Amino acid sequence: MPTTYSKQDTITDAEATKKAYRPSHPKLFEVLYAEGSFNSQLVATTAFKKGDIICKIEGTTPGPKKYTTVQVAKDLHMELHSDLVFLNHSCNPSTLLDTDRMQLIAAVDIKQGEPLTFFYPSSEWEMDQPFPCWCGTDGCCKSIQGAKFLPRVVLERYVLTSHIRELLEEREASQQ
């Protein structure tokens, strides 16, 4: 897998960052770097139809829970080591990050140039760095802390990974 530029909290020189950038999946998507904190985004470089497997998730390594990892099991987080680390959150996501099959799947038809997003609580039980959501979509959760903090009625709108479904069942069993 090509070397990729690691995710930075704050970019002060977007042009220099872009010059250093080596895309991991150049025919599928690219990172649009923007100055400031957490302003960069991943966009499609080709169109995808709903249900398309955009790419396999490969080259991951286990790591401690942090904002750049993705939860893939109840007690396991993975570093992505690819441009997928730039998938931003949306309460109306364009993709599904399927950590059970290790695939990124188009949740809707996606046009070239459109942002690729996923619903973080679909794979994250408790976020390392919770944040306010500004996606502005209908049904926005407003605060993204992880699936642990959302009611079942909200989570039922999304495709959830098996470990999130399992943790949700455990939460509900403990409340009875």
TrEMBL record:
Gene3D superfamilies: SET domain. Coiled coil: none annotated. InterPro entries: Flavunoidine_N-MTase, SET_dom, SET_dom_sf. It holds the Pfam family SET. Residues 42-120 form the SET domain. This is SET domain-containing protein.
